[in-house]
């Protein structure tokens, strides 16, 4: 029996050890994958996550990570869908990132599933997923949590779905050809920039182990030469990409990732070689992210992209004029017509300088980035951007569209299953750009005769209209491809991706086409042999699109060979009305009272043989303008450094109008301002100074209709102590400290003493303030345990003097202190009347951490948790009630009542605020040179001094012994001489 028990016990130990070993191996693989994931290297992260899922098949967090990786790898995005579909079965709002212990997916997985459906053109499913995500986040208080869920961004995704449907109703015409296997390979080729004459190309290729920049020229026959790798000439390694090339092909602009800081560089073509790259000056490159630059045709203006402060959104397009041959002047934002609150990127001018092509997430697009162009008017202003249309634009990211000539031709990279491998560079000919249409797409239906008309081939010819040459004949019926796109309005449209022909040419073609009938043999026409089309019902309309400002409209239809008409009306993609009519004559008038905006009316005509003909009419109704549109949407308060309050008033306004703003402070008019309104929303910023301010907004629209709105702001300045706290909060560098705790020195700290010492040392090396580092240590100590009585006893055991006396009193009344923060606040308050200061409190908390027995990994995890919440962000986008905040206690009550933060997040925020108070006061106190040294460093210095004294003492003893030895020897020698 004993043997059996021992055997079972040993088996349990063996199984548990095996399980533990397997768990830690999976955890190590997961963390390795997660580090690649954090740095957005999804191709490296993906195989590691797949290995983890193979062993841990019910881990919904790993499913989510795999789906996210696939969603961000070109050519692999469809694979994301099944993983994200499984991940959303088990989600949580309390998601813990960067830990293998988390087995549930974040609720965000539902949003990314919507993105996956959208980029794969499954638009209705995308709408369902976004709706599910919207419903989920509105059921939790965390929806308001410091923009944790950006509902504006979610609304934009809904708009993208609706736009995608509309754009796919009206595909644009173009023909693109693969530029061939001298340039395109099995790798990804992208960011092709071309000189003004179209004869010089520089591009980037993602090779097996690094990204390289290549250079190619056209030969006398118009063929591209084999490209030359320029990395050696440019003097750069990886992390670089092409962005722009001058009109004459001698000035190359390059983007480089300099340790997570995007910068723009330039190289010049001289004496047959490219020079080493040189970084552009401070007017272009800043501490912010610069991602793209290209030149105007005259080489005098640089159009570049940056997310610097005071823009309209994140990435904006800026312009700078050349100062000297190698320097650029001060940058100017291109303005609100081009830039939006979302990202704009990759701007390129046509060689005539009159069209600007760029990519944007913010204008009316189909999802992700779409390509737009804007034209320069006679006043030198950019016009409203135009979406270049589907299928050039897709529901995925579409960027880096490089035009030449007047924008009728372009180069762009596309991923094609029929191409050479990854992304290939294609040459585009655009038909929808004004003043150009050089190709004809013609469909031909071949038949034996009129009776047998549906049995033979269907071919599509691509014809050059200028020379009437047939470029290519397509046989879609013989290819296993999707080739025809039929819009609801009945327009035939070809979307065709060919394989390589005998000339190694691949086409991507999109165009409307006409059907022409060719009879191979003629027969005598007989009544019973009438074509099928002659007996079909038909609906004839004047137009399929109606723009009206009338409250009631009449739609005229000519109905032929039908006896029943069904009418369905759709508004915002929802069926709102259905009607049925018996048709007794051809002419029919349908009366409709439209709703504001766009409606669709679907007419379906049926004959007695159940043959069906449908037509759809789009009605765009905008009522006659009788009043100006002006309303207050929201009021947001921001608390700045030194206690300054700023009120942002969001207005809904009418585009093309003028806005007049009168400002009264304490009933006295102090300013009048006028604004030209170019967008449907406007934000007015105001910094209240007096106790009562009044803002009068008056909007005058283009029809001289007037609308007034009034805003009254009551304001009491905040007190001095809270103003100092705000200064600390406003400047607290959460991102800098996150970088600090991820350094190898911090992560490899062997003891708590070493960790504290390294935090101070690394903070100084990284330019982070000592006060903020002390605030972090104080907050770390406050949040180190939830057991407040033990915390008090631990502090009491380390304190001395008046500090110990105060802690004795705290210990006696410990039940009245609900948490550690209350204890430290009490110590700080008593320092004003007792013989200790805030530096003593900091030293006490450092000693506590070093003697607490808490391990370094746990403290590091607590530090990371502390820094998850960007403390500076709590001062922005506060609702209007914050205008009444005067003290720190008011501010804390506001944060608690706002329901923006969880209890744990509030605990972290309040601890850091207390740390900032103590550290700020400590910096103003008199300190001895010893006191200025961090505790850990002082202890180390004491040890060094002790050893130094010991070394000197030993050396003194040895020297004394040597002197005695030589004296005795000399005395003996003297005695011998005397004898």
Structural commentary:
By secondary structure, the protein is of the alpha+beta class. It is 31% helix and 29% strand. The protein has 21 helices and 46 strands. A seven-stranded antiparallel beta sheet has the order 21-22-23-3-29-28-27, with no helix packed on it. Strands 8, 9, 10, 11 and 12 form a five-stranded antiparallel beta sheet that branches. The protein has a five-stranded mixed beta sheet with strand order 32-38-37-34-35, with no helix packed on it. Helix 1 runs antiparallel to helix 2 (42-55) and helix 9 (720-731) crosses helix 20. The longest helix is centred in the C-terminal third of the chain and has 44 residues, at 935-978. The N and C termini lie far apart (96 Å).
The total of helices stands at 21
| Broad structural category | alpha+beta
Strand content: 25-35%
**Gyration radius, in Å:** 37 Å
Number of strands: 46
Shape: globular
Features of this protein?
7-stranded antiparallel beta sheet, globular, 5-stranded antiparallel beta sheet
Short description:
The protein has 979 residues and is an alpha+beta fold. It is 31% helix and 29% strand.
List the helices and strands and how they pair.
Blueprint: H1 2-38, H2 42-55, H3 60-71, H4 80-87, E1 91-92, E2 105-106, H5 108-119, H6 123-137, H7 151-169, E3 174-178, E4 188-194, E5 200-206, E6 211-217, E7 228-229, H8 231-234, E8 240-245, E9 251-257, E10 262-270, E11 273-274, E12 278-279, E13 290-295, E14 301-306, E15 316-321, E16 332-333, E17 344-349, E18 355-360, E19 370-375, E20 386-387, E21 402-404, E22 409-415, E23 423-430, E24 439-447, E25 458-464, E26 469-474, E27 484-486, E28 492-497, E29 507-512, E30 514-519, E31 538-541, E32 545-548, E33 553-560, E34 564-571, E35 574-582, E36 587-592, E37 597-606, E38 612-621, E39 630-639, E40 645-653, E41 658-665, E42 668-676, E43 681-686, E44 692-700, E45 706-714, H9 720-731, H10 734-741, H11 744-747, H12 752-765, H13 770-782, H14 788-798, H15 801-812, H16 820-830, H17 838-851, H18 856-866, E46 878-879, H19 888-898, H20 903-924, H21 935-978
Parallel strand pairs: 1-2, 24-30, 32-38
Antiparallel strand pairs: 3-23, 3-29, 4-5, 5-6, 6-7, 8-9, 9-10, 10-11, 10-12, 13-14, 14-15, 15-16, 17-18, 18-19, 19-20, 21-22, 22-23, 24-25, 25-26, 27-28, 28-29, 31-33, 33-36, 34-35, 34-37, 37-38, 39-40, 39-46, 40-43, 41-42, 41-44, 44-45
Helix pairs in contact: 1-2, 2-3, 3-4, 3-5, 4-5, 5-6, 6-7, 9-20, 12-13, 13-17, 13-20, 14-15, 16-20, 17-20
């Amino acid at each position: 029996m004993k043997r059996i028990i021992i055997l079972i016990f040993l088996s349990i130990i063996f199984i548990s050890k095996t399980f533990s070993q397997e768990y830690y191996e999976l955890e190590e693989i997961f963390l390795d994958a997660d580090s690649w994931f954090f740095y957005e290297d999804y191709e490296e992260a993906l195989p590691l996550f797949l290995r983890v899922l193979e062993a841990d098949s019910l881990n919904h967090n790993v499913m989510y990570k795999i789906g996210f990786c696939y969603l961000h790898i070109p050519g692999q995005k469809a694979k994301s869908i099944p993983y994200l579909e499984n991940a959303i079965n088990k989600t949580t709002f309390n998601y813990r990132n960067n830990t293998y212990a988390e087995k549930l997916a974040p609720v965000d997985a539902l949003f990314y599933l919507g993105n996956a459906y959208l980029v794969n053109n499954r638009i209705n499913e995308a709408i369902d997923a976004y709706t599910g995500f919207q419903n989920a986040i509105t059921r939790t208080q965390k929806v308001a949590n410091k923009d944790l869920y950006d509902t504006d961004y979610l609304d934009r995704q809904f708009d993208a779905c609706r736009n995608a449907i509309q754009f796919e109703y009206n595909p644009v015409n173009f023909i693109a050809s693969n530029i061939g296997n001298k340039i395109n390979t099995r790798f990804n080729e992208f960011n092709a920039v071309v000189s003004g004459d179209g004869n010089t190309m520089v591009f980037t290729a993602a090779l097996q182990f690094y990204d390289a920049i290549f250079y190619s020229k056209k030969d006398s026959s118009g063929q591209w030469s084999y490209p030359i790798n320029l990395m050696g000439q440019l003097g750069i390694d990886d992390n670089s990409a092409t962005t722009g090339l001058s009109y004459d092909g001698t000035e190359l602009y390059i983007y480089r990732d300099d340790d997570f800081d995007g910068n723009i560089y330039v190289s010049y073509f001289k004496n047959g070689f490219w020079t080493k790259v040189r970084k552009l000056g401070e007017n272009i490159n800043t501490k912010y992210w610069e991602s793209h630059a290209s030149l105007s045709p005259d080489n005098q203006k640089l159009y570049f992209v940056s997310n610097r402060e005071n823009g309209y959104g994140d990435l904006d397009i800026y312009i700078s004029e050349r100062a000297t041959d190698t320097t650029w002047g001060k940058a100017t934002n291109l303005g609100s017509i081009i830039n939006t609150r979302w990202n704009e990127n990759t701007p390129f001018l046509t060689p005539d300088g009159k069209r600007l092509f760029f990519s944007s997430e913010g204008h009316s697009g189909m999802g992700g980035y779409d390509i737009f162009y804007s034209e320069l008017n006679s006043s030198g202003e950019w016009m409203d951007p135009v979406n270049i249309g589907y299928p050039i634009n897709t529901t995925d990211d579409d960027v880096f569209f490089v035009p030449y000539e007047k924008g009728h031709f372009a180069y762009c990279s596309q991923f094609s299953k029929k191409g050479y491998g990854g992304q290939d560079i294609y040459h585009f000919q655009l038909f929808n750009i004004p003043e150009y249409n050089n190709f004809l797409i013609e469909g031909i239906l071949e038949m034996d005769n009129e009776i047998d008309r549906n049995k033979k081939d269907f071919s599509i010819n691509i014809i050059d209209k200028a020379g009437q040459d047939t470029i290519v004949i397509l046989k879609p019926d013989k290819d296993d491809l999707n080739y025809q796109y039929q819009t609801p309005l009945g327009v035939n449209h070809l979307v065709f991706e060919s394989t390589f022909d005998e000339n190694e040419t691949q086409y991507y073609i999109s165009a409307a086409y006409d059907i022409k009938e060719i009879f191979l043999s003629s027969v005598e026409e007989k009544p019973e042999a009438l074509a099928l089309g002659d007996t079909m019902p038909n609906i004839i309309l004047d137009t399929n699109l109606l723009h009206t400002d009338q409250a009631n409209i009449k739609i005229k239809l000519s109905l032929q060979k039908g006896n029943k008409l069904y009418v369905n009306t759709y508004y915002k993609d929802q069926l709102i009305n259905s009607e049925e009519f018996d048709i007794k004559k051809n002419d029919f008038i349908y009366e409709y009272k439209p709703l504001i905006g766009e409606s669709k009316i679907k007419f379906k005509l049926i004959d007695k043989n159940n043959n069906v003909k449908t037509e759809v009419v789009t009605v765009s109704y905008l009522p006659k303008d009788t009043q100006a549109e002006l309303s207050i949407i929201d009021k947001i308060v921001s608390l700045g450094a030194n206690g300054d309050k700023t009120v942002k008033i969001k207005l809904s306004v009418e585009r093309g109008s003028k806005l007049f703003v009168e400002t009264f402070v304490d009933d006295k008019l102090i300013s009048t301002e006028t604004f030209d309104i170019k967008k449907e929303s406007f934000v007015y910023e105001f910094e209240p100074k007096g106790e009562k301010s009044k803002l009068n907004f008056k909007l005058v629209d283009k029809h001289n209709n007037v609308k007034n709105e009034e805003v009254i702001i009551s304001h009491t300045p905040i007190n001095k102590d809270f103003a100092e706290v705000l200064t600390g909060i406003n400047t607290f560098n959460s991102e800098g400290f996150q970088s600090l705790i991820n350094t190898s020195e911090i992560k490899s700290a062997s003891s708590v003493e070493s960790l504290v010492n390294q935090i101070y040392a690394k903070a100084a090396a990284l330019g982070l303030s000592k006060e903020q580092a002390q605030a972090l240590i104080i907050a770390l100590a406050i949040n180190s345990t939830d057991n407040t009585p033990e915390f008090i006893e631990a502090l009491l055991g380390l304190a001395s003097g008046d500090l110990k006396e105060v802690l004795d009193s705290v210990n006696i009344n410990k039940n009245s202190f609900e948490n550690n923060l209350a204890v430290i606040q009490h110590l700080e308050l008593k320092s004003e009347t007792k013989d200790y200061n805030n530096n003593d409190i900091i030293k006490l908390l450092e000693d506590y951490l070093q003697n607490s027995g808490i391990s370094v990994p746990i403290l590091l995890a607590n530090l990371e948790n502390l820094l998850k919440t960007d403390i500076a962000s709590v001062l922005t986008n506060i609702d209007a009630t914050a205008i009444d905040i005067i003290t720190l206690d008011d501010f804390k009550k506001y944060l608690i009542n706002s329901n923006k933060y969880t209890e744990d997040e509030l605990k972290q925020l309040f601890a850091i605020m207390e740390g900032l108070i103590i550290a700020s006061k400590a910096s103003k106190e008199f300190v001895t040179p010893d006191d200025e040294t961090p505790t850990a460093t002082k202890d180390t210095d004491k040890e060094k001094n002790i050893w130094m004294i010991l070394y000197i003492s030993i050396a003194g003893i040895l020297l004394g012994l040597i002197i005695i030895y030589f004296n005795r020897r000399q005395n003996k020698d003297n005695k011998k001489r005397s004898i």
